[in-house]
Amino acid sequence: MARRSTLILIFLVRWCTSPLHATTSAQAEELYNAKRYVEARTAFEQVIAAEPNNASAAYYLGDLALMRDAPEEAARWLEKATMLAPRSVQYFHALGDAYGLSAQRAGLFSKLGLARKSQAAYEHAVALDPEDVETRYALFNYYRQAPSIAGGGSDKARIQAIEIQKRDHLRGTLALVELTVADHKFDEAFAALDEIRRLHPDSSVANYQFGRASAMCGQRLDQGASALRQYLASTPTEDEPPLWAAHWRLGQILEKMSDVPGARAEYAAALKLNPTQPQLVEAAARLK
Fold first, then answer.
1. Which of 13, 52, 71, 206 could form a disulfide with 101 if both were Cys (CB 3.0 to 4.6 A apart)?
2. Angle of helix 169-182 relative to helix 186-199, nearest 10 degrees?
3. Distance separating alpha carbons of residues 156 and 151, to the nearest angstrom
4. What number of CA atoms fall less than 13 Å from residue 164's CA on the CB side?
5. Cα(34)–Cα(259) distance, integer angstroms
6. Are 4 and 11 in contact (CB under 8 A)?
7. pLDDT in tens, 236-257
8. Torsion angle in degrees (nearest 10) through CA of 194, 195, 196, 197
9. Among candidate residues 162, 167, 128, the one with its CA nearest the CA of residue 143
């Protein structure tokens, strides 16, 4: 009996640890959705060990790598995911993110190639589903930020902003405002933002953009400060401007209003959230 019990125990241990009986995709996704990311990573690794062609597991492992700020690892998993599921907009969008983050950290010779890969992934995702606003916005941001040698440009960004506006009027109009502010056409930007804030009084991003424009041009400072304080009272999503940026812009406005203690406090709050941002370090040092 003892020998039989031992054999049963060995069998159970092997059964529980066998790749054939690893965590299922559904169980791994439950962990992910519950934000138990460390456990989710282990679970998805078990899934893909048992099912090497599981595109979903590869995607989630790539996404989790992005969360850990490991874009090169993320790109490897997401390349696999897009190869296995070549019509997934979500997977190509994430791959564009991974290439873009990798490009930011790459050396001079690798940077351009990775940037071009990011562009290609976003463009492919948009081609797969032209109605996907999130992916169009990612492509808009790429065109807006990338130099022309890497395929960027304000004209391309404007085309995407107009396409976004057709599908999501508020978001597309805000994207156009970003381009207008970048061109220092502040009267035009304020006119658009006044209209947006009238039609969409609950738009926190419109408040941020108003404050940002005010900080950049030195106009309508009282209204800009009020708009940024409203934004700081909100909880931004991952796709919205971070709170440190709002503190920084509010600090710039207060500095222009000769409120040095107030500006110093806002720069300190921004630095607490993002201690390595060069503009914040410079601003805080200037007012010491």
1. 71
2. 160
3. 9
4. 23
5. 44
6. no
7. 998 899 999 999 999 999 999 9
8. 50
9. 162
Task: Using alpha carbons, select from 121, 125, 124, 156 the residue that is nearest to residue 140.
Answer: 156
Q: How far is CA 96 from the centre of its chain?
A: 11
How far apart (Å, rounded) are the C-alpha atoms in residues 246 and 260? 17
What is the rounded CA–CA span in Å between residue 77 and residue 62?
A: 5
Q: Which residue has the tokens 């048992």?
A: 50
Backbone angles phi, psi at 36, to 5 degrees: -95, 70
The three-state secondary structure class of 183 is coil
Q: What is the pLDDT of residue 7?
A: 38
Q: Computed from CA positions of residues 206, 207, 208, 210, in that sequence, does the dihedral angle turn out positive or negative? A: positive
Contact present, 140 and 164 (Cβ < 8 Å)? yes
CA distance 123 to 34: 31
Residue whose C-alpha is closest to residue 173's, from 148, 147, 142, 140: 140
- Contact assessment for residue 270 and residue 248, using Cβ atoms and an 8 Å cutoff: yes
Task: Fill in the amino acid letter for 89.
Answer: V
3-state DSSP call for residue 109?
A: helix
Q: Provide the whole-model pTM.
A: 0.84
pLDDT in tens, 136-179: 999 999 999 999 999 999 999 999 999 999 999 999 999 999 99
SS3 at position 223: helix
Token pair recorded at residue 35: 């934000």
Write down the pLDDT at residue 5.
43
**What is the chain's alpha carbon radius of gyration, rounded to the nearest angstrom?**
24
What is the Cα–Cα distance from 13 to 134, expressed in whole angstroms?
A: 45
- In CATH terms, the fold of domain 179-288 is 1.25.40
Q: Give the residue ranges of DSSP H helices in 68-185.
A: 71-84, 89-105, 108-128, 133-145, 154-167, 169-182
pLDDT for the residue numbered 11? 37
